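Structure tokens please, single chain.
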Amino acid sequence: MALASAFALERPGVIHAYAISSSEFPAMAQKYGVGGVPHTVVNDEHSVVGLQQDAPFAEFVLNMKDKEINISEAPGFDPAADSLFGDSAPSQPEKAPEAGADFASAPSIFGNDNKTEQYGEVLDKGDEYNCDLLVLGGGPAGLTAAVYGARSGLTVTVLDSGMLGGQVSLTPVIENYMSYKAMPGSQLASSMVEHAKQYAHVRGNLQITNLEAKDGKFVASTSNGQYSGRSLLFATGSTWRKLGVPGEVVLSGRGVHNCASCDGYMYVGKKIVVVGGGNTALTDALHLKNLGIDVTVIHRRDEFRGEKALAKAIEKNGIKVEWDSVVTEIVGKDQVTGIKIKNVKTEQIKELPIDGVFVSVGQEPNSRPARAVGAKVTEQGYIEVDKHMRTTTPRVYAAGDVTGGFQQIVVAVAEGAQAAHTAFMDLQEG
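Here you go.
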């Protein structure tokens, strides 16, 4: 938000920046589809969830196409409609200048006239970039591998198709990372990113279009050109698994959520359902119940897969359960109003009137790119590795959540360090 404000201050007639707190303005948060984690919306067209690093965000703004926008008439985000922004909308802005030209030359924004030196990783010319270790994934595993690899003498490049920092950036509070009693996940992620940048070439928000083994190297084709490495590390993590039912995608952020600790407070005094039967689903249900929310758990089996202690706590707290049931549709136009479920034994379908849905059915490993270089993947979709983090393809490694196991930050960090060390040893052998 600091950089967005800087842009707005520099070009008040072109850029307007607003910030809302979803905890203080839950109605507005639901109106614009935002949650408890940072959510950036630009021109009602571009929406990115999670902490935005300054350099990639600056690059995004600098490369936007010319566009005239009348905020008072633009659909969706309307400052004049909410008293928070005052009684009147901003005046008609002037036409945006040529993309990149004026903004890039503004020293008050960048603090340094030598943009290439300050934002070197952002303003690549797109030429082929060669390194010893090419890391795909900018979360804890990938960033740690960058530090350990570089300190071993390797040149390292880290690429990520999304925000740097991984899912840690979306976690409100981290309480189990050693030496930190409690800290915002975005803060820990940002610290890791800045640490890695001291040693490696780190790029986020890149569109990675292709990956292949070519002439003894591993080549990633991106929206910024080609990057190649003598060795390759997958630290691509995992993403929330979806139900795949009508209404889930279009109502995301408007009643459909994945993180109970992030967005639960918006539903105090309301009715919600938690879908799932594992530890995460049961923990989410108990957390939401404790906030004063009317909770129902929907589970496709007749008993929970989660720990017995959690199952007993569900019963003790009087949380309702729809056993042997699956979700067939999430109902609502601009906001969730109900959910349709089917009993898998009786085939009976019924609709429950609710205000929100928390989907807790596990995560999907981002392992598809590994198949492009011949690395073996398990039936569950995780990349298969040995104790040294080697995959079944020589000079290809994997670390973090994409390998399965105990998916914790501390484990991802350890695996990233081990993978970098193994890559260093293997490269010494030619």
